[in-house]
Amino acid sequence: MRVGPLKVKLQFACGDGFAMGPGKADLLDAIAAEGSISAAGRALGMSYRRAWLLVDEMNRCFTAPLVETGRGGGQGRGARLTGAGQDILAAYRALQADAAALARNPACDRLVAMLRHAPES
Question: Which residues pair with 102 in a beta bridge?
Fold first, then answer.
């Protein structure tokens, strides 16, 4: 997320990858809204394979799965966030809001006052 010239990107590492970051949080939001991984991927402009790989990585990185899937479309099928998925998404979004508050910190103002608009050539 970008707040003025400050860019804050929260990522939680898991081995060599990331268990959670802004893109994965957006994917969880889309799955909750769309009810399927494929529809969530389409809504975010990514392939089903990419969306599925991200869901798989999240499910493997946390102690409980974040997304449950059922085969095929139709009533009761598709994908949904588990209770753990809802909790982790809410906690991540709360941390993002706290991080955005950094832009209101006087130390940020001091740094921004000394920042160029673009690098010197």
Answer: none
Spatial CA neighbour of 79 closest among 37, 46, 23? 37
Cβ neighbours for 60, distance < 8 A, ≥ 6 positions apart: 14
Q: 3 forms bridges with which residues in the sheet?
A: 6
How much is the CA Rg of the chain, to the nearest whole Å? 18
C-alpha span between 112 and 57 (Å, rounded): 36
| Token code pair at residue 41 | 């991927």
Tokens of 58: 């999240």
Extract the tokens encoding 84.
């753990």
Can you list the pairs that 70-75 forms with residues at least 24 positions away whose Cβ atoms lie under 8 Å?
73/36
Residues 81/59, Cβ–Cβ less than 8 Å: no
Task: Quote the pTM value.
Answer: 0.85
| pLDDT digit string, tens, across residues 81-100 | 999 999 999 999 999 999 88
Q: What pLDDT, on a 0 to 100 scale, did the predictor assign at position 109?
A: 85
Give 63's contacts (C-beta < 8 A, 6+ positions apart). 84
